[in-house]
Amino acid sequence: MNLTLKVWRQKGPEDAGRMVTYRVEDVSPDMSFLEMLDVLNEKLILEGDDPIAFDHDCREGICGMCGMVINGVAHGEQVATTTCQLHMRHFEDNAVITIEPWRAAPFPVVKDLVVDRSAFDRIIQAGGFISVPAGSAPDAHSVPVKKADADAAFDAATCIGCGACVAACPNGSASLFTAAKITHLSLLPQGQPERDSRARAMVEQMDAEGFGGCTNTGECTAVCPKGIPLDTIARMNRDYLKASK
């Protein structure tokens, strides 16, 4: 495959940034999107140019490090797929592909496609710890949990914190991320002691970071690689309102 890439290049947070066009040839359809960028970077290095900076780690859709807007869609147009698991066979030969970083004020660009997502870390830190006894593992099924609650908690816990929900939201909201982190504990017995204080602290930290408010457009769930449902946000709102009284 031969491709034309229009990539956002930005030397640093204070740089204005611009789109730069590159031509990549002989791309295997079996390559992942990041492997294709690796090939381009090798070419740029050989030509004495600065390689494109982008986040990556596990390349297995687990860590949440990779993230870029591909043709206007966070992680690309493949549903429930991270950028690292997106393969070039989903693109046409001679396609023009636009690649940009996450666009949100709380995610400042570090360089090129790399953004600073430490705002997510601070939201999680605001939630604090859970009060559970330390020591040996409890007996199986010693604390009954309804299957519906267990399933919903597991679904929320699959959030990898990639930030696609923020990048896709027209308001730059982090409600889906924050709701997932609040919900997976609020549905389990271990999360009950600090349930109210956790919900209040994490939502207030989310607002303090400068993320926008949720208006239920649903763009976040559409691009979420783990398919976290929109009703997770409703659970968070109920917990926050209850904790605020």
- Order of helix and strand elements from N to C terminus: EEHEEEEEHHHHHHH
Q: What is the averaged pLDDT score?
A: 95
Order of strands across the main sheet:
2-1-5-3-4
Helix content: 25-40%
Low-confidence stretches: none
Shape: elongated
SS field, number of helical segments: 8
- The amount of beta strand, in percent, is 5-15%
Quick recap of the structure?
This protein is 34% helix and 11% strand. The protein is α+β, with helices and mostly antiparallel strands and 245 residues long. It is elongated and about 60 Å long.
Key phrases:
alpha+beta, two-stranded antiparallel sheet, 7 strands, 245 residues, single chain, five-stranded mixed β-sheet
Give an overview of the whole structure.
Its cofactor is [3Fe-4S] cluster; [4Fe-4S] cluster; [2Fe-2S] cluster. InterPro entries: 2Fe-2S_ferredoxin-like_sf, 2Fe2S_fd_BS, 4Fe4S_Fe-S-bd, 4Fe4S_Fe_S_CS, Beta-grasp_dom_sf, Helical_ferredxn, SDH/FRD_Iron-Sulfur, Succ_DH/fum_Rdtase_Fe-S. It comes from Planomonospora corallina. It holds the Pfam family Fer2_3. Keywords: 2Fe-2S, 3Fe-4S, 4Fe-4S, Iron, Iron-sulfur, Metal-binding, Oxidoreductase, Tricarboxylic acid cycle. The protein has 245 residues and is α+β, with helices and mostly antiparallel strands. The protein is 34% helix and 11% strand. The chain has 8 helices and 7 strands. It has helices spanning 33-46, 118-126, 147-157, 164-168, 175-186, 195-208, 219-223, 231-244; strands spanning 3-9, 18-24, 69-70, 73-74, 96-100, 109-111, 114-115. The strands form 2 sheets. The protein has a 5-stranded mixed β-sheet. It has a two-stranded antiparallel sheet with strand order 6-7. α2 (118-126) packs antiparallel against α6 and α5 (175-186) packs across α8. The radius of gyration is 20 Å and the shape is elongated. The mean pLDDT is 95.
